[in-house]
Amino acid sequence: MAVLPRLTSIYERQGFDLTTGLNPTHLYGEISAPFTYLLKDGEIVTHAAGIAVQELYLLEALSDVFLPRHILIVGNSFGWSAVAMALVFPQAKLLAVDSCAETAAAEGLDLTNRIAAAEGLSNLVAIKGRSPEDLPAIAEAYAKTAPWDMVFIDGEHTARQVAIDFNAVRPHADKGALWLFHDAVSYGLLKAVERLGQDNGLIFQPLWRTPSGIAALVPQKLVGQVAMTLHAFAGAEATFRHMRDLGRFGATERLVAALTCPELD
């Protein structure tokens, strides 16, 4: 189910312009071009970018093979990922949690809940909460009878906080939960996520073909269901590293010489 048309129209009806899925070579090499930002009066309203269109497609592809019942998102910002997942997984209950360290994040919680009410997304709730201290009470209120079986970690992008978030959620998640860590490649979190997988018997899979470099931790019981889908967004690490080396040493310059930022009339 393609949700991008509805997702973009939802935010436009809330009075926002948005930018997502752009090509960096069209924006003078702006590395954040693929990701999602909301704008009002020509100004970006939050510096925390939402998932890219390619990552939205990952969720859609997963929904063909995996139907979680209860999803937790750690890090909500303006709700783009949460609303997207509520649309992609309509059968699942979804809870988005944000510490609201920035004023914009608190406004984002309110926006997310307004959208859920306006769009009939009764499966989505966004609340304020800090990890790890608030997670036990949140789990008692929201996950006592239905443990989370899909977790999307997108909070503070440090190795320390990723481990804190995982360990805070793990006791309240289903043992067969699928874990996705946004920005794992972009923020150098792969070793931290891999270590969590090793310590908890989960299979580590970087998704090299996602713009942020999402990393997945997969329980053995889900491998047969999701392996083909995850591989489509991962490919071979050797191929990724080969392309990375081409970029490092400038060997791709001849290939992209015609892709300099075009001047617009």
Write the layout of secondary structure elements.
Blueprint: H1 4-13, E1 17-19, E2 37-40, E3 43-44, H2 53-63, E4 70-74, H3 80-88, E5 93-98, H4 103-118, E6 124-128, H5 135-142, E7 148-153, H6 159-169, E8 173-181, H7 190-200, E9 203-206, E10 215-218, H8 223-232, H9 237-248, H10 253-256
Provide a descriptive summary of the structure in words.
The structure is a single chain. This protein has helices spanning 4-13, 53-63, 80-88, 103-118, 135-142, 159-169, 190-200, 223-232, 237-248, 253-256; strands at 17-19, 37-40, 43-44, 70-74, 93-98, 124-128, 148-153, 173-181, 203-206, 215-218. The protein is α/β, with parallel strands linked by helices. It has one domain (53-240): Rossmann fold (3-Layer(aba) Sandwich). Strands 6-5-4-7-8-10-9 form a 7-stranded mixed β-sheet, with helices on both faces. The protein has a 3-stranded antiparallel β-sheet with strand order 1-2-3, with helices on one face. Strand 4, helix 3 and strand 5 form a beta-alpha-beta unit. Helix 2 runs parallel beside helix 3 (80-88) and helix 6 packs parallel to helix 7 (190-200). The longest helix is centred in the middle third of the chain and has 16 residues, at 103-118. The radius of gyration is 18 Å and the shape is globular. The mean pLDDT is 93.
